[in-house]
Amino acid sequence: MTSQDLDLTTLSPTRLWVPKHVLVTRAAADLPHTAEIIRRCERAGVDDIRFLPGNALTGLRGASDRETYASAKNTLAVVVAPPSALKPQPIPPSADWRIDLAKGCPAHCQYCYLAGSLQGPPVTRVYANIDDVLAGIHTHAGRGSVTSGTLARGGEGTTFELSCYTDPLGIESVTGSLAAAISRVGAGEFGDDVQLRFTTKFDDVGDLLALDHRRRTRIRFSVNAAEVADRFEGGTARMPARLAALRAMAVAGYRVGLTIAPIMPVPGWREQYGALLDDVSEAVAGITDLDLTAEIITHRFTPASKEVLLGWYPRTKLEMDEESRSQKRSKFGGVKYVYPKQTMTEMREWFTEELERRLPAARLLYWT
Predict the structure, then answer these.
(1) 71, 148, 353, 354: which one has the fewest Cβ atoms less than 10 Å from its Cβ?
(2) pLDDT for 30-51, tens place per residue?
(3) Rounded Cα–Cα distance for residues 255 and 338 (Å)
(4) What is the pLDDT of residues 97-114, one digit of tens each?
(5) Going by C-beta distance under 8 Å and a sequence separation of 6 or more, which residues neighbour residue 336?
(6) Distance (Å, rounded) from C-alpha 67 to C-alpha 368?
(7) What is the pTM of this model?
(8) How many angstroms separate the Cα of 296 from the Cα of each of 259, 267, 344?
(9) How many CB atoms lie within 10 A of CB 10?
């Protein structure tokens, strides 16, 4: 693939989420960003837009867990971020701080990272008080320990992760929140030494290409081996479309990255992940100002996430066998099940070597 192969003016998304239901809470009803969200939803053809009499999201549960899940995944709630959600939180090893444009995701990944961490039906909630959400960038710029002031990643400035609890590109067509954040940071509203970061499995980048981002945003595309992506990542853009979007954003001057996750030692994993790295190498070929990073994350699960995932996807073939895993405990006593040490070492050595060999332009930020 060369730069001539990609016409940026005709790039269109292969996967676009449009909710069937939009719920607007009373606190969010009169905010300026709510009007933009409603405009986008109406333009997308959403007929069911309801203004609630209060701030509670009610009537979300169906007759069964599957019915509740299906309805929730088709619902966008426009809400106000509570004070507890407005203070940026540390988020190593990805970034200095986490700020949330939304919570919830319309995709159907059978290993979903959000399972067990969000309460109630998996409705996507977008925050209408975007000024309050972004204000944390100003108060926390110049602070942090992951990139801000460090030797290894100091060139990134103070970094703010937007995608801990959502895929912001997956909902961008009906929210506009991502473009608003990129434009305001690009304009220097929060200073010159800050950078936004987000990860996505979608390819709807058309509206972002022309923004005056000033290289203050890094978009990382979540990529995986074909077997993993095709089997477990429902409702997302396919891998070729993500790589085309990766190239488009890099050509438009954005800093870009790979979130290779979740790594799984499926049969033939070396060959499959080798093919993936080769495809990425082809996608970024010939880009002279390429700034490419890689973050590699192995698959893990908790008892709570396993229970939720099996409720959502009772027929999943995702391996979640505690007996074949090692326990990893957090400082708060929580348990995650990760691959055994030998498997982790083998995969880490292979990825470190092959990333450098097949994709030398990529800078590995961390492995976990």
Answers:
(1) 353
(2) 999 999 999 999 999 999 999 9
(3) 31
(4) 999 999 999 999 999 988
(5) 300, 301, 302, 327, 328, 329, 330
(6) 35
(7) 0.94
(8) 6, 19, 12
(9) 7
